[in-house]
Amino acid sequence: MNNKPAILGGKPIFDELLSITRPSLPELEEIKSQLEDTFTSGILTNGKYVVEFEQRCAEYLGVENAIAVSSATTGLILVEKALGLNGEVIMPSFTFTATCLSLNWNNLETIYIDCQPETFTLNPILVEKAIAANTCAILAVCIFGNPPDMEILDNLAKDYRLKLIFDSAHGFGTKYKDRLIGGFGDAEVFSLTPTKPLTAGEGGLITTNDKDLAQKLRLMRNYGVESDYDCELIGLNARMLEFSAILGLKNLSTIEEKINHRNNLAQNYKTRLSKLPGIEFQEINEGCRSTFKDFAILIDEAAFGLNRNELALALEKENIQTRQYFSPPVHLQKAYRHFYPKYKEELTNTLKISSNILCLPISGEMKIEELEKVCEAIYQIHRFSDEIRRKKLGEQLLVSR
Known about the structure:
This protein is of the alpha/beta class. 40% of the residues lie in helices and 13% in strands. The chain has 14 helices and 12 strands.
């Protein structure tokens, strides 16, 4: 690498942008016959490939029912509607917007709970403290593929007779206590978008061992209609495309390979970056396997020499894309922050993590050589952090004049 980072005038370490992630896509020839079959049949949604995809996913996850939908967001909305929720739902603020959005679409009250500082997942102790007379459900989240304390939450839900939903959008292939998730709580919802470990292009998957709930959801993803226009339930147009199912089926055949690769990349990141001061990592509990949908680091400004935003800018100059997931957290986002005065808890861990987090490039397609160059760039940026700070201060003074 150059003597100086690109932000100080050196040549960028990557000639072209290294994206935060890359979708796993098969060669067109590998799915050409199925695509041609779909075009010939004229059945574009909820056809035989969707059925096969559901069956194969259920077998892989070890669950009785898998219901394919158009997105994880619509999946959450439908599950909450099908369960007949009414009242307050306990959820983390450190999550993607869709978790909260689904509750708002169902006119449910959100009660934000702080996350655990090591795993970034919902804190069960605080969940129990927040349970009140109007609480109807717990909505926990699999953060970056790292599962929450699923059995503890399951016991809490049973003890207090609450519904339990897992937003497992990042978690297809995640393991909790050496068991693939998918069958916990009343239902789990997975995302299949291009950034996820298992991608179908677009789409989502609801899993449940509740036969009656599964039957409701299959109706509700098609407006609540079975065979005529007499709606039995209030639903949505949440059907999955056959094209998505075909892509999902192909990628399902390599899901273990891709997740193992992501875990190998994550371990390489940890080994290399742990030698630098001021960098912390998300902890994965023993017996759990994360999909590492994202690889997150926390930056301690005093120890590292730059804050999270400054490091992100310096990496951008090196043509390395990063993301600040989830900043701001839901309770401080414009659409939701007017609810915040209701909550007494300060969500200390949520605020600290969201203010210092930076997600680095990772995917099932990422090469180890690319990871090595990302780490090299971070080392160089740390090495020249004082000079980068002085340069930034000089630019700010010029602007102020």
